[in-house]
Amino acid sequence: MSSSGPDTRRDGATARVLVVAAAVVDDLATPTRVLAARRRSPPALAGLWEFPGGKVEAGEDPVTALHRELAEELHIAVDLGPELLNLAGSCWPISAELEMRVWLVSIRSGMPRAAGSHDDLRWVGPDELDGVAWLPADTDVAVQLMRLLAPQPGTPSRETHARGRPGTAPSTASDRPTPPRPRLR
Fold first, then answer.
1. Is residue 26 part of a domain?
2. Cβ atoms within 10 Å, residue 52
3. Integer angstrom CA distances of residue 1 from 116, 119, 144
4. How many whole angstroms separate alpha carbon 180 and alpha carbon 157?
5. How high is the pLDDT of residue 170?
6. What CA–CA distance (Å, rounded) separates 176 from 91?
7. Which residue of 10, 30, 88, 104 is surrounded by the most CB atoms within 10 Å?
8. Average pLDDT over every residue of 9-33
9. pTM above 0.85?
């Protein structure tokens, strides 16, 4: 990630620093997997997984920053898909000082490889997302992606897994709550 100092608004309050991240999916039209990147550093984050990206530099457009970060971190060029919004329809909060925007992207060229602040990459399907040790800021994004990703052909869906265990699934489809679809811009 690149560093950037906090901006100060006219009212004297410190504006949040914007971070951009990518949910790198296997297909923008019908995504079935997303790429997760394991942090190597800093020590407090080492071993946790994230959606790759970084801070927007002063005066930089967020989409330009996203393309720059993915080229620097993963050595890939991407096609931009829709922005993934939180349930309130806005940025994802990271901390009092940081907020994050996330886009779906697919790889146009290059082969993703772990480098710099990442020591491993892995493709994750919808039924695996909740088993990943995500950075706290990326956990809610992963939950949204579980609703968006289609099961891979030939693999049982989340509902099929639940029906296979006694007492874990409602008796009819109408009894199951329908989770809201992620908000895309």
1. yes
2. 27
3. 9, 14, 24
4. 17
5. 34
6. 29
7. 104
8. 84
9. no
- CATH number of the domain that 33 lies in? 3.90.79.10
Residue 185 lies in a domain: no
Closest listed residue to residue 117, CA positions, set 43, 64, 63? 43
The single-letter code of the amino acid at 154 is G
68 phi-psi bin (left φ>0, alpha ψ -120 to 50, beta other): alpha
Across the beta sheet with 34-39, the strand order is 49-50, 34-39, 118-124
Query: Which residues on neighbouring strands pair with residue 162, listed in sequence order?
Result: none
User: What's the token pair of residue 106?
Assistant: 């697919």
> In total, how many domains does the chain have?
1
- Report whether pLDDT(71) > 80: yes
Q: For residues 124 and 143, give the distance between their C-alpha atoms in angstroms, rounded to a whole number.
A: 13
Cα separations (Å) of 149 from 31, 41, 91, 144? Answer: 5, 29, 20, 9
